[in-house]
């Protein structure tokens, strides 16, 4: 480390609240998604779709910008439960620091269209 401070995480002491994911019957869950490749043609202004199938199978579909071929990218993979990992959520508007348990890690890879070659 070069000794610089991340301006989003200062060196001050803050109250830390345990979030809803720590309750006996959590009303919230948190997940991470890791993908192997993100095409530049993905339209970040549009919503995508996440489907959880049989077992732990996950499919994520993201639309491309208009006029792109193909019109979307499909990622497929699976989810695995987290055991001890958490995420720190900092609300810079209110100054609130909340710790939430992570529920699952989702790892996906871009699928190739049928008939396409490497």
TrEMBL record:
Domain Transcription elongation factor Eaf N-terminal, chain residue ranges per copy: 16-113
Compartmental location: Nucleus
GO molecular function per UniProt: transcription elongation factor activity
InterPro entries, A to Z: EAF_fam, Tscrpt_elong_fac_Eaf_N
Keyword Transcription regulation (UniProt): yes
GO biological process: transcription elongation by RNA polymerase II
Main location: nucleus
Pfam families linked to this entry: EAF
Keyword annotations of the record: Activator, Nucleus, Transcription, Transcription regulation
Domain of life: Eukaryota
TM region(s), chain numbering: none
Keyword Transcription regulation: yes
Cellular component terms per the entry's GO annotation: super elongation complex
Similarity remark: Belongs to the EAF family.
Protein name: ELL-associated factor 1
Gene: EAF1
